[in-house]
Design a protein that fits this description.
The structure is a homodimer. In chain A, a hairpin with a 5-residue loop joins β10 and β11. In chain A, α8 packs across α10. Chain A has a seven-stranded mixed beta sheet with strand order 3-2-1-4-5-10-11, with helices on both faces. A four-stranded parallel beta sheet of chain A has the order 7-8-6-9, sandwiched between helices. The first copy, chain A, contains 13 helices and eleven strands. In chain A, 58% of the residues are buried. Chain A is an alpha/beta fold. The first copy, chain A, is elongated. Chain A folds into two domains: 186 residues, Rossmann fold (3-Layer(aba) Sandwich); 173 residues, Phosphofructokinase domain (Rossmann fold), CATH 3.40.50.460. At the A-B interface, β2, β3, α3, α6 and α10 of A face β2, β3, α3, α6 and α10 of B.
Chain lengths: 403, 403
């Protein structure tokens, strides 16, 4: 293939925001500035929606200080979109690219974004317009294939772990049943992170429910009952995509008039319905008086001032890597391979094919889930601990010996 | 009155946990250790419930390192209780006190706790048993009388401010209407803190609703509509105690089978009902497609690793001050007076009568609320900014000039 073209670049952020998607953006910008082949670095305002409407900001002129503030900011600084472009949509984008001599396309997002990069690249090839299309992984759900884990997960995992550490202490202080609904439509990685701050034998969460392990309401209630009888309290972390025994999500069963997003997904976040449903089940069936439920909602993906240091560093490196790859290759998705664990934790970045990531999702592997399907294994702890970073220490005195 | 007795002391934590109630506990412990009049320092397990059941831990032997970890931990490290003792209950507590020679009583909590200290002190006087009863203020609602503000508020305010900073950036990236329900049964101080991170002209939250300003659903909807038409998005912070025009809480109207706590309060936290109700109103009446609602719930009072430095320092000082006061006085409540603002921010501690704090609550003063009742004034900003501490900086690039 020909050498890297002298042309302009565009970068966009797609899908749900995360706590470090802006670090990946800054990684793309700082690496792009090092390569004379790349001239103007356009930021697409609201992702593909801005590309097709020719709405861009110039990212090459931001000060180093501004870039650092961007990298530390939650959410998607360029705005985002849930549009899922087809070939026609991509042809309209390419018209804009031709007009502006854009030949580098960097798209930070989930599996839909990898697919967009793939379609755009294919349509460009068909039109004999050479573009280099790269996907940078991003998701709090951690559900992309190939990569060991996704930028965005570690920071969301840190939020969830700190939330459950506090919530478990709250539940010790005022005992009862507490249900926390956590993001995760198809994958339970983020819900599993609820255990990362556990240090005492009886620390919660005591039960976890994942999309990967359908559970009947009867099994759920009997497990809650057993913990409550033993500890006089029970803290439960539930994925928003938790399923009934027949594999259907509880959320879908509850929400008769569920709103759907343009990808055909049912709205699971931004409503307290699942939490309130489960709380009512526990209260009514188990006759437990104090039952509370929280839905963590958007806080777990966009909270100012809370990032995992490892996650933000890796997100930035993934952004840089996409630009480096674009100097030598036509397209691809950036992925991470773990090179060590524990104190030797580290990752190497590598290129994978867009089609390996596009339109596919990963579930929690079986070795991360306990036999009952309501907890995690040591293998998960070793996988996730380095990603969330060191967690705060806590004390609880009421369990000290009585005098 | 006689000099401070040589006797044992008890400390308890009452009511809802906060992010710094443990710092007040540590303040009591570290100051008590300095005074030879105080012998054993008992921690009451689950507050008055532990006192009446003779359940105590010995707090005098904790290492300095453990005490620092306690001070940094959210929730109530001794456990808490919502019991509201009457004179009979207090007489039973005093039987335990006599047996253990406890003559110092330190109770960290809200206005109910000040009342408990008052009743206990009165009943002890009637029985000619000299105890010294002190209240240390605590509440995330910031609704105690006399004191300039309450320990616990600054940390919760910091959480809410960081949450809204992130959530506003999320709403910019994916525009729509976002409703956030925030703790505050009778006082809107914590909801008002949602604005503390605003720096850009069009930053959200754009509308705030407080218990102090009843609002009809019609007025609420027309205000949301106006913001949405102007900005194509709207972020709203709502107190859980938000009232209809007739002064009744929306929560009460919604929850026909509302659970009541032992104080006769309706359960407002731990349910997403108000948020979902308001979201449905906006969606159905204004025909806005993307409407989301989150209820922050217990995260805002018990989240590991997030404290306001000013708040944690003041909470600890208030704990110390109660012990100092007990060396020279019979009873009282610790209060704070602001000695300067902005860069000169500081507080002096002083004693006030228990009855000045007991069973009363403070609302937001009129000068903190704007004329429409849906926002705050500069006076509130100056009041609350020092309490939450310095907030993270953020950037949003999509609003930069297009090229």
């Amino acid at each position: 293939m020909a050498g890297a073209p002298k042309a302009n670049a565009v970068v966009g952020q797609s899908g749900g925001p995360t706590g470090v998607i802006n670090a990946s953006l800054v990684g793309v910008i700082e690496e792009a500035k090092k390569h004379p082949e790349i001239q103007t670095i356009y930021g697409a305002v609201h992702a593909v929606a801005g590309m097709v409407k020719d709405q861009f900001v110039d990212l090459g002129k931001l000060s180093a200080e501004t870039l650092e503030t961007v990298a530390a900011s939650p959410s998607s600084a360029l705005g985002t979109s849930r549009d899922k472009p087809d070939a026609d949509y991509c042809r309209r984008i390419l018209e804009v690219f031709k007009k502006r001599n854009i030949r580098y396309f960097f798209y930070i997002g989930g599996n839909d974004s990898a697919n967009t990069a793939h379609i755009l690249n294919t349509v460009a090839d068909e039109g004999n317009f050479d573009i280099r299309a790269f996907h940078v992984p991003k998701t709090v759900d951690n559900d992309l294939l190939v990569t060991d884990h996704c930028p965005g997960y570690g920071t969301a995992a840190r939020f969830v772990a700190c939330a459950l550490m506090g919530d478990d202490l709250d539940n010790r202080a005022l005992p009862g049943v507490k249900i926390d609904v956590i993001m995760g439509r198809h994958a339970g990685f983020l819900t599993a992170a609820a255990v990362l701050g556990k240090t005492r034998d009886d620390d919660g969460p005591h039960l976890l429910y994942f999309p990967e392990r359908p559970v009947s309401i009867g099994k759920f209630l009997s497990e809650v009952d057993a913990v409550y009888k033993k500890l006089n309290r029970c803290v439960i972390a539930v994925s928003e995509g938790m399923c009934d025994a027949d594999g259907e999500t509880w959320a879908k069963k509850i929400a008769q008039n569920a709103e759907k997003d343009p990808h055909g997904n049912i709205q699971l976040s931004g409503t307290g319905a699942l939490a309130d449903f489960l709380a009512a089940q526990v209260k009514n069936s188990l006759k437990i008086k104090r039952v509370r439920a929280d839905t963590f909602g958007y806080l777990q993906r966009s909270f100012a001032g809370l990032q995992s240091a490892v996650d933000v560093d890796e997100a930035r490196r993934c952004g840089c890597e996409a630009v480096k790859l674009a100097m030598v290759d036509d397209n691809g998705s950036v992925a991470m391979k773990r090179t060590g664990n524990g104190k030797n934790y580290g990752v190497e970045l590598f290129r994978t094919e867009l089609k390996n990531v596009a339109e596919k999702t990963k579930s929690m592997p079986a070795e991360f889930l306990n036999n009952d399907g309501n907890g995690v294994t040591q293998a998960f702890m070793e996988y996730a601990m380095p990603l969330a970073g060191q967690l705060p220490k806590t004390e609880y005195l009421a369990s000290y010996p009585k005098v």
